[in-house]
TrEMBL record:
<dbReference type="Pfam" id="PF04343">
    <property type="entry name" value="DUF488"/>
</dbReference>
<protein>
    <submittedName>
        <fullName>DUF488 domain-containing protein</fullName>
    </submittedName>
</protein>
<dbReference type="InterPro" id="IPR007438">
    <property type="entry name" value="DUF488"/>
</dbReference>
Length: 148
């Protein structure tokens, strides 16, 4: 039997820096896996790539990884935003994308254990980080998902 993987997810919007970093450290997260397509935007605030990497290390000794293969394409994002946020279409297109990318073959279970998938959405309900976590659970079967 495969060892259980503890996988967390978090979004940074509607959280203060204090809430965000305390949630990660109090949960025992070992690394943050950034699943955003654009992690350098000024809108990212304290989660702008280089700042986030620094803060994670300094505050919680948490590693940082950016994985574009876990992010949607710009085309999928644009269609979602321009089509009145049709979640069902977005979800279908994104799931097809990660299946085509065969992410379950490209990311190590060891990297995911104790990791936290990061994106901007405040909740996991309409967010690709949840889709990634659930897809990997369906592929591997040994993941415990915790949305922070």
């Amino acid at each position: 039997m495969n060892k259980q993987i503890d996988l967390f997810t978090i979004g940074f919007t509607k959280k203060s820096a204090q809430q965000f970093f305390e949630t990660l450290t109090n949960s025992g997260v070992k690394r943050v896996i950034d699943t955003r397509l654009n992690n350098v935007s000024q809108l990212a605030g304290f989660t702008k790539r280089t700042d986030l990497e620094y803060f994670l290390h300094q505050i919680g000794k948490i590693d940082y990884i950016h994985r574009l293969d876990l992010a949607p394409t710009q085309d999928i994002l644009d269609k979602y935003k321009k089509n009145g946020k049709d979640w069902e279409t977005y979800e279908e297109q994104f799931l097809q994308l990660i299946q085509q990318r065969q992410i379950e073959e490209k990311i190590s279970p060891d990297i995911l254990d104790g990791a936290c998938l990061l994106c901007s959405e405040p909740t996991p309900h309409h967010c690709h980080r949840r889709l990634v976590a659930e897809y990997l659970l369906n592929q591997w079967g040994n993941i415990k998902i915790c949305h922070l």
